[in-house]
Amino acid sequence: MSVRNYRELIGGLGLISISIVFWSQVASLPVLHGTTLGPGGLPKIAATATVLFGLLFCWRGFGGTKAASPRLGLRGLVAIVAAVLVFSFGLERLGLLISGAAAAFLAALGARDRKTIELAVFPVVLSAACALLFVVLLGVPVPVWPNL
After folding, report:
1. How far apart are CA 87 and CA 96, in angstroms?
2. How far is residue 103's CA from residue 123's CA, in Å, rounded to a whole number?
3. DSSP 8-state class, residue 82
4. Which residues fall within 8 angstroms of residue 32, CB to CB, at 6 or more apart?
5. Which neighbouring-strand residues pair with 33?
6. In this structure, what are the phi and psi dihedrals at residue 69, rounded to the nearest 5 degrees?
7. Residue 69's pLDDT is what?
8. 3-class DSSP state for residue 64?
9. C-alpha distances in angstroms, 71 versus 75, 96, 114?
10. Residue 22's Cα: distance from chain center in Å?
11. Which residues contact 63 (CB under 8 A, 6 or more apart)?
């Protein structure tokens, strides 16, 4: 059996690997707590569903019509990884507004069809909306401004 669609196969393997890591983190949590769903129930159901979707994508990668091999785009991957790292390491030090705007800016750099005005407006609007939603409306105790 030969691979006919690499994009489907790689996506399916990615979902399966994420599910394995996710399952390993919640393996010790009980699925049931008496007659109700326990703290590990929903995460394990979600991990199982993700594995099933990954297997479906892998199966579709071996069947169907032959698709062109995908060109590996490193710019988007590097931009997303950099955005996640900046946000995760900068949230406590820089606050939600600055780290959110920096992460959105870095993620937008990965797009091929970006415009300069979008790079200036999108991060500001997105970080302001996140601050409004999480801090004001939901009351999540996240620093909004840098801790100096």
Report:
1. 8
2. 8
3. H
4. 38, 41
5. 36
6. -65, 135
7. 61
8. coil
9. 12, 35, 19
10. 13
11. 4
Q: Is the dihedral of CA 106, 111, 115, 118 positive or negative?
A: negative
Tell me the β-bridge partners of 36.
Answer: 33
The answer to whether the CB of 8 falls within 8 A of the CB of 61 is yes
Nearest-angstrom CA–CA distance, 16 and 53: 8
Sequence-ordered alpha helix ranges (H) in 1-137:
6-26, 41-62, 74-109, 116-130
**Residue 69 to residues 3, 8, 95, Cα–Cα distance (Å):** 10, 10, 41
- Confidence (pLDDT) at 127: 93
Per-residue pLDDT of the chain (148 residues; tens, 9 = 90+): 687 888 888 889 999 999 999 999 998 888 887 788 888 888 999 999 999 999 999 998 888 667 666 666 788 889 999 999 999 999 999 999 999 999 999 999 888 888 888 888 999 999 999 999 999 999 989 899 887 6
C-alpha distances (whole Å) from 77 to each of 12, 91, 111 are: 17, 21, 10
